[in-house]
Write a structure and sequence with these properties.
The chain folds into 2 domains: 168 residues, no CATH class; 194 residues, I/LWEQ domain (Up-down Bundle). The chain is 75% helix and 0% strand. Helix 10 packs parallel to helix 14. The longest helix is centred in the last third of the chain and has 32 residues.
């Protein structure tokens, strides 16, 4: 009997009870992505894949402007929903049943959003896309309101987050009542309103960020996006088995896609990303500029598919334009990571080689050389990174000065 009473007194809080949603320790040892966060990422594989496929079809049909604008909006919805959950989780993750349930509600919204991607591309119909997006954001409002009850010094910040997000969602719903022409004008304004909420809220008092946890989450999402490029590489090889006329060029394209994807992985994970997150300004920069990095990674896989269409005679784009659908995303990805995380942790050689290499890749379609130049340039960048490792960790004084700026 006494043994049973001892076990009862020392057992952890039952899962049916809710844990106080207090701010997490930003210096917590061993903080890694949870299984729930990894599960959360899985639904974004679906949304990213459908967005890239629709971009591929729009580009191959020659509808470049329409395709890029739709992709930019759709990817914003995907990225913003993912990023907001990620930064909230690093601050207030409790992993109790209510936290899990609200996260699963957000995941269901992502799946519905994925179903609304095609109408957004083909018909400029944003109804399903917006409704799914609002579902995800309302779940996020509930999370912030719950956090406000135990947030301590960050209470006012959590309340601003909840109020700001809720207000913007009302505006999204009202936008659906406008004619399509007016919607096109209002959409950019609502995007600006969304990205302004964290800037305003964090100025009330910053929430705690765990640099290693945040950068691990960004790295995991990057791997998901690069996985789409590996799929495109495999598709080029598969297509070569069914097209005897262009088998050599298709195999070359498949190898190019694989080499470049491997190089993008190497370049992304070369710098110590956790150093890029310090004060509010640096953290906002790291989070927001990743939109272009992530969008470029997704567009790269679409570009490979466009090149396959061009080689097999199924694209309205010419050879040069089709090549740009591959090289532009590569250059944007490399320049984005260089500016965010590499340049402050690299010597002069690396800080010349990386941006110059990105420029060479960008100009590859108009240079009188084979398409393999892109793969060679990317491999050369990797060699430079291997020979020139990241600079040593700055001293505490340097960290303090960097955070102050």
């Amino acid at each position: 009997m006494r043994a049973w009473q001892h076990r009862r007194m020392t057992s952890p809080t039952p899962r049916a009870r809710l844990a106080p949603m207090r701010p997490r320790d930003p210096h917590e040892d061993g903080r890694t992505a949870s299984t729930l966060e990894l599960f959360f990422d899985l639904v974004f594989v679906v949304a990213v894949s459908i967005a890239a496929a629709n971009l591929h079809h729009a580009l191959s049909e020659g509808d470049v402007g329409r395709g890029l604008s739709a992709y930019a909006l759709v990817f914003f919805a995907i990225w913003w929903a993912w990023m907001n959950f990620t930064w909230f989780a690093t601050s207030f993750d409790t992993d109790d049943w209510l936290y899990r349930l609200l996260t699963i509600v957000q995941m269901s919204g992502v799946l519905v959003l994925a179903a609304g991607i095609e109408p957004a591309f083909t018909e400029r119909d944003y109804t399903l896309l917006v409704l799914a997006y609002v579902v995800m954001r309302v779940a996020m409002v509930a999370q912030w309101l719950r956090a406000s009850r135990s947030a301590g010094a960050a209470r006012r910040t959590t309340q601003v987050y909840a109020a700001g997000i809720a207000a913007v969602q009302v505006c999204w719903l009202l936008m659906l009542l406008l004619p399509s022409g007016a919607q096109s004008v209002v959409l950019p304004l609502l995007v600006v309103a969304e990205i302004a909420v964290p800037v305003v809220a964090e100025r009330r008092g910053t929430t705690p960020w765990h640099p290693h946890h945040i950068t691990e989450r960004y790295g995991l999402f990057t791997l998901i996006l690069l996985g789409e490029s590996l799929l495109a590489s495999a598709n080029a090889i598969i297509e070569a088995l069914h097209d005897d006329a262009e088998v050599a060029r298709l195999v070359e394209l498949g190898v190019l896609a694989f080499v470049v994807t491997a190089a993008l992985w190497w370049i992304y994970f070369w710098p110590p990303h956790h150093r890029a997150i310090g004060g509010l300004r640096r953290s906002i920069r790291y989070g927001y500029v990743h939109y272009f990095v992530f969008a470029a990674a997704g567009a790269f896989s679409a570009g490979i598919e466009v090149e396959i269409d061009a080689l097999t005679g199924h694209s309205e784009l010419g050879d040069v334009a089709a090549s740009f659908t591959v090289t532009v995303p590569i250059a944007v990805f490399v320049l984005g990571i260089w500016w965010l995380a590499i340049r402050e942790n690299a010597d002069r050689v690396v800080n010349v080689a990386v941006p110059v290499g990105a420029l060479l890749v960008l100009l590859d379609p108009v240079l009188p050389v084979p398409i393999a130049l892109t793969a060679l340039v990317m491999a050369a960048i990797v060699v430079v990174l291997v020979l020139h490792p990241p600079l040593d960790e700055p001293s505490d004084d340097q960290h303090g000065r960097a955070a102050a700026h």
